[in-house]
Specification:
This protein has 388 residues and is an all-alpha fold. Helices cover 68% and strands 1% of the residues.
Length: 388
Amino acid sequence: MSTKNGSWSVARVRELWGLYWTRGTAGRETPAELFSIMYAWWFVALVLKLLGGSWDISWHFETLRDDLAPPHDLNTVGTGIAVALVLFHTYTGYGADRRTLRWMQWGTGIFLVAIPIDVVNHNVNGLDITTWSPSHSLLFIGTAAMLIGVAMGWYRGAGRGRWFTAGWLVLLTLVFEDFWFPNEQQEYGILELASWDRDPGHPYADRELLEFAANQIGRPVGREALAGFSLPMPDWVYPVWGIGACVVILAIGRQLIGRRWTATAMAGLYVGFRALLWLVLSATHFPPSAVPFFLIAAGLAVDAVFLLPISQWLRPVVGAVLVTVASYALLAVQSVLLSAPPRADWSAPVAAGSLLVLWLAATWFLHRYPLRTPQGDSERLSTADHSG
């Protein structure tokens, strides 16, 4: 899509539009050039949504909600690109088979329905700070379904060149990020509370936000009011959700991609992004969050289990125990050396049990319904290890 001198060509864009904007059914054979263009725009949309969402939660730990706040605008641009892409897939049939398209459509639809619900919820109930609210859950669910659709589309349509595995890894890590996102409530909250303890009366939150939070619980402005919106969840939620519900995405990624240290790479990619975000937010004087460095231990534990000479059905049993022990141990170390949300150590068996059930379910599902290429070739990667 460029002229000889490398600049964008309006004529070329018109040529491609006239060539490909034709009615077709899902699963239509897609030219490599068109596929690359569409999924390049998907990555742009998802990056904008990632940055907008990440900035948004920091924004709301500093000031009251604003429908037109810059993080919302950034997220909206990403969402707009995603909607345009889903419409293009739907009308032309290019770049997505029927199942992939359904994931994209349902995910986008749920997300769009959730937006006005979320606006009404916050106009009625006030503070836009709890990531665990029902309206926010709809946003996460819609985004997750959309991401799964994009990941499936990439797997089934992308050429098996040097960028295939990298794109597959990034998309699966974005799925993990979406699942992990509610836990950021506690990760930002613990540093919000620490900002008060360092300088009582002058936390990250501005005066308007402090007064609003205090009025909601009928208390004067103070540490109690700050803690009310900073750390509203019970201490067991953070480790149980993070380990019991999210780490299974790392195991699924390792199983699908089939390469050694895939789970560690996914965890490292996510933690690296969060660490970079911490630097940017701190440098720009926005509230930062605790970075979940302990996830590296979870990724290593997942990968270690896949190296053991055991069956795919025993792997979740051993993995759930190893991941839970390693994660809770490193989370305790991080709490002492750096900063981490409060946790309830008694919840470790609950987290291990949840991870075991989900890991077994994922193993059964991937064994029963292996991914298929457009040519019908299936890949069962539950026991394979591709180290190339």
